[in-house]
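Q: I have two molecules that I believe assemble together. Could you output structure tokens for the complex as a whole instead of separate predictions?
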Amino acid sequence: MRRTVMSSAAIALIFGAAACASKPEPEPVADTAPVSNDTAQTEPVDESDIEEPKRVMDAGPAAGSIEDFTVNVGDRVYFDLDQYRLDQDDQEILQRQAAWLESYPGVRILVAGNCDERGTREYNLALGERRANTVKNYLVSLGVDPARIETVSYGKERPIATESNQAAWALNRNGFTQIMSGAASS
Amino acid sequence: MLRLMTVAVLTGLLALIPAAKAEVTVNISEGVLKPTPLAIPTFEVSGGADSQLAAEITEVVQNDLISTGLFTITPESAHIQRDLSIDTQPRFADWKIIQTDALVVGEVDTVTVEGVEFIRASVRLWDVYGEEVMRLEGQAGRRFTAKPEDWRRIAHKIADTIYSRLTGEDPYFDTRIVYIAETGPKDARKTRLAIMDSDGANVKYLTTDNNLVLSPRFSPSNQQITYMSYENQEPRVYLFDIQNGRQEVLGDIKTFAPRFSRDGESVLMTKANNGNSDIYIRDLVTQEMRRLTDNPNIDVSPSMSPDGRQVVFTSDRGGSPQLYIMNVDGSPLTCPSGGRDTVCRITFGSGAYSAPVWSPRGDLIAFTKQLRGKFHIGVIGTDGEGERLLTESYLDEGPAWSPNGRVIIFAREPYAGGPRKLWSVDLTGRNLRQVPTPTEASDPAWSPLLN
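A: Yes, here they are, computed for all two components at once.
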């Protein structure tokens, strides 16, 4: 959400600059070479509305779609080893998730808790429950109706990275927000 | 003259025991360093029995005994006496000279009962140096009869008889193992509930691979399995009847890590409430679900003592996963580390402990230990003393006991990304060997002895 706002502002600035440059005024002819340190002296800026940018086909996922959620919001938060605490990055992602869910109140989600392979199967099922529930609780604290959120633990049974190294394990320790129903078609 | 086959780690012990008292016995409590040589010539046939079948039965008997690591089988090419009969005494000198301690003589025939044909195998065990028959269950030999398709069970029962007679241990070959068959890449893994004979033969799949299934465990008293399935995206504990293939829901949603009580009348399991896992026990008759632990930390993977009075489980209440013991009735107990409490921690070593399983003998608990980047299968006394690590690899986990408490089967990923397979190891840490499965495999659990 925030990223979208920022990019609109950037586009407006560029348009503004272009409008400015394309509006030539007759320049006074000076006898002498003007020597001026007065940088404050600028052309007047005309301000006018610009149109909303048109959505171009294939330029991005449809608003409210699962792809929109995945690409523009972020569907996973990542946990430290043996932890289920949410750090600042995780909280920002979940804040975006909560805002998106507020925009699309018909959407229901399943939060899955996942673990890396460096633990035993049943303990990891319990740890995954912890992680899924931590995500759910944070979303609820941001105003998402708990009735819209199911949780599940897959323990270490659903890795997304198949390598066996620190980077892969870090990716596999996650809370995955899956949209179950109510999303726009993309 | 009798010869003592006991293999004792304490050297010199052998010489102190009067030879006259000895017979062929294998003391396996300290782990066998030198296997006992047995001769098991291919069983004879009579009464129109199939000689190929007799050869196959003999081979299964030999392989069962070899798999214990306690015996070697003398090669048939070395045998001198070729006219063995189950009805006559062997020429002991012919077997002594090839240094065979015991001789198994078998015969396969067929019997027809009310028009139905059965196969029958008879077997005698001879003490070569003692020059006498070794009585089996008090008899001068044993005879097993079964339908032709159950010929492997006859072979396992013969092996069980010989194993028990020579070691004094309870048998375990005529059993089955349930496990999770795994196929496909790690990020798209398919799992099925599978069952096989203890030697890996007769694999059957009990479920399709549509749902993630985990943690199957045998009932100690009947042909039922409890396990966890993600059917309908709702993970919970189920009961599966092997005989009729019926499956019934046993636990609420978010129940997992099930295990039967020792009497088979209850199932221990873990249930997550709002993200927090605790231990419960469900009575299979009344369907009452009783909570055993109520702790804000993870409590998971319960396993009951053989006397049915205590439960061992994994908890991270101490900051890392460790093993804890409690009384099933919730009453306080005296903790090994001192004091009385309703829950006692029994592991204090470095590393993480999980997946505890109480031995059928009651004195040991097997576990998975994670230490410095390696995984181990280990055992520890119920008082927290005498920890021993039996294995080490990239990933060893999920131990299960043979019904006689001598062998532990577990899943191993030998190196990162390596094939996940079932392995077994003797209680002493010796005789590590792979148990063959057609696919990758995990979560093995042993059945009780078949009838």
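A: One point stands out. The CA atoms of residues 84 and 134 of chain A lie 7 Å apart.
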